[in-house]
Amino acid sequence: MAKLKIENGKLIVPDKITVPYITGDGVGAEITPVTQSIIDAAIKKCYNGKREIEWLEVLAGEKAFKQTGSWLPEETMKTFQEYRVGIKGPLTTPVGGGIRSLNVALRQELDLYVCLRPVRWFKGVVSPIKEPQKVNMHIFRENTEDIYAGIEWQQGTPEAEKFLHFLQNEMNVTKIRFPQTSSFGVKPVSIEGSERLIRSAIQYAIEHGLPSVTLVHKGNIMKYTEGGFKLWGYAMAEREFGDYVFTMMQYERIKKSDGELSAEEALKKAKEEGKIIIKDVIADAFLQNTLLIPEEYSVIATLNLNGDYISDQLAAMVGGIGIAPGANINYMTGHAIFEATHGTAPNIAGKNKVNPSSLLLSGVMMLEYFGWKEAADSIINALEKTFRSHKATVDLARFMENSVILTTTEFRDEIIRNL
Ligand code: NAD
């Protein structure tokens, strides 16, 4: 069994690979083994023993705390560092002072700067929108910066007082409406942080043959942070991707020049040539457009907070968090953790009714990351077939007509039969 390597920026994936996994708390104990069985069955079916995953359990969350006294043992972090790729079920966020969210800790330690959420609809799944088949988006949410950096001072503390003093006396800030009762937060957004996120999004679009990358921002209000994200993104795209892309900045420049082609003609030509169109949109307009014209969007690159809202809205448009997969990735070091996007669902844990699709589809993303496309596709096809025949776990089946409600393990068996 071997580990994933990265050589000259390329992932080297051995045929027999060890994948560390965190079972997760609550429903994690149900969805993790189910996901592993389906993935193993798909790999066996597609590669007949030539390829294989050896699962290696590492501890985190309640299970880790009970066994070791630590919520996130050093050993777990070391294993993820070493093996680079892993998969995790949901973790209880420990309540109490001084304990960081385990998810945040993993992201920070491994510098997993991309939160990737592909959003697509499966025929048979009930959606609140009229034409869910038009939704096929891939969200690249920046994972390390923005207001999520956690630099905040609570109103009334000496720190907030000191910060206010600095703003008013050294920075000549006069615009704070109620200075004495304000809490403060800092929103760092850097060139490096923005560029690496947008670069990964464009590379992904190229590798997957996708038509556009949209930079979603609030640069109209936050000119230097969100506006910077947009401008740095456009500049990097033109500088680093040259002929692979056509940006709306180029479009604007052509509009102002008297070249042979009009801007509209240049855009049309770029599309015909298969160039990736780099465009941008203000976040509020984007949320509206996702409901009205979802077909206009493919890969989305956005900042941390916008990405949080967008991910949940888009997930809801295709059937909710029970089937939305996700991954946190550092494309430069190869580190990636694939995860269920929902929580530990304590209200249904142990009842054999949880929908395992979120973790399963995250597993599919992992297979795609390895380049094991046949196995990934076979699981997708099996899921489609299952949903088309109106068979699903209760969370989805209750909205389907003439549905058959399956338990978690029956759902697993049905998918394996459909592989
Ligand atoms: P939750 O996602 O666990 O549950 C919200 C609701 O959705 C519940 O009614 C639940 O039954 C339902 N649900 C969730 N996943 C489902 C699935 N796969 N199939 C069917 N129904 C599903 O959110 P919560 O209740 O706010 O959080 C519970 C715990 O999970 C908290 O400790 C929270 O911190 C943690 N959490 C962890 C993660 C993570 O590890 N990534 C994410 C969110 C919440």
Integer average pLDDT:
94
> How would the global form be characterised?
globular
Extended strand count: 17
**Lateral arrangement of strands in the main beta sheet:** 4-3-5-15-14-6-7-13-10-12-11
Outline the biggest β-sheet: 11 strands, mixed
Radius of gyration: 23 Å
H/I helix tally: 15
Helicity range: 40-55%
Strand percent estimate: 15-25%
Question: Can you walk me through this structure?
Answer:
The structure is a single chain. The chain is α/β, with parallel strands linked by helices and 419 residues long. Helices cover 43% and strands 18% of the residues. The protein contains 15 helices and 17 strands. The strands form 4 sheets. It has an 11-stranded mixed sheet with strand order 4-3-5-15-14-6-7-13-10-12-11, sandwiched between helices. A hairpin with a 2-residue loop joins strand 1 and strand 2. Helix 1 crosses helix 13, helix 6 packs across helix 7 and helix 12 packs antiparallel against helix 13. The radius of gyration is 23 Å and the shape is globular. Bound molecules: nicotinamide-adenine-dinucleotide (NAD). The site of nicotinamide-adenine-dinucleotide has 19 residues, from loops.
